[in-house]
Amino acid sequence: MSSASTTRSSLKEVPACIKFVEEALKRDKKVYVLHHWDADGVASAAILLRVLGPRIVGMSTPRIGMYGASALNPSEIERSGADTLVVLDYGARPDEILARMPQGIQTFIVDHHAVKLSSDARRCCCNPVALGMGEAEYPSTTWVLYELLNTPSDIVDLVALGIVGDLGPALATSEHVLFVDNVAAELNMTLNDFVRAVELIDSCYRVVDSKCVEHAVRVLAEKGVEGVLHDEVLINTRELASRYVESAYDRLQSLKEPCPGVKVWKLRLDSLVTSYVGRSLARAYPDDVILLAHNIPSLNVTYVYVRSYSMPLRKFLEKLREEGLNVGGKDMVFVVTCSEENCDEVLSKITTHLCRDLSKEG
Questions:
Q1: What secondary structure letter does DSSP report for 55?
Q2: Which of 165, 236, 250, 316 has the smallest CB count inside 10 Å?
Q3: pLDDT tens by residue, 182-220
Q4: pTM
Q5: Could you give the CA distance from residue 145 to residue 51 in angstroms, rounded to a whole number?
Q6: Are residues 227 and 294 both part of a single domain?
Q7: Are the C-beta atoms of 254 and 265 separated by less than 8 Å?
Q8: Does 224 lie in the same domain as 271?
Q9: How distant is the alpha carbon of residue 103 from its chain centre?
């Protein structure tokens, strides 16, 4: 495809990325792929499945909805016989992942989320954003892989899908919109087809179905975006997820605005619809920062989802992380994980930072 004719190569000078390409991709390694459950993570896993084929001896997601060491299953990785582990798009703290992995298995982390890197993590973490490169340049983990691989024309459909999945409406103002438009045109598809494919894939994690996620990886790797659009398993899962979303909107509780420009909601529902509902609220209020505190009883966790389509949030992410909160995310969105008991305290800390900054701007 002509869309892949001019690839950038800035990552090919990063030691961890060079090591990933030379040792995980070029050598005869047995690879286990651990990937995030959203469309970018699924598309990234599908890229490696296309590129490495039978060299992949196992593939799975961490426990859906959970981030960190407790969500991983190292014994499964060990049983696979893999000598190399590739972690894609997970966004958890790299040191936690490395500490949890079995001895004797070489680990590479490929990502684009804003995480802190220790000296140990830097040696195996190919993450341009964490290494200080521009977040706008790396909108998805699929794009990181696109820069690294030697056969990008074989994967541009998956790269574009990851970008659409992670950027959502922000794609319209991204430097990558032309790339996605070109890929869609070459496939005789539309941008809306890619949006629908993202919706189908993300339905799997919304109903907390890891088998469905892995099914999506295989379909995407073998049949591409078009195959996803016509897959009965994914279509049926989307219908189930849609019912969860409808229930979420019925249960949304709007809270008093802490200050102009910040809107807050609470939700209690046993389904991982946090980002779907949060994005829709952000689209409805594009000039505001929105906060959604979603309690998921079955996971015994509350996610405070913070998104803005008009205001960069990276500095708030860093401030909250410095205060000891469990924060992960990117420039326009981040999530704070907390217990139901301390959720109000976490909300107060977030809104205090946001309102203080907005009052200065005002």
A1: G
A2: 250
A3: 999 999 999 999 999 999 999 999 999 999 999 999 999
A4: 0.89
A5: 11
A6: no
A7: yes
A8: no
A9: 27
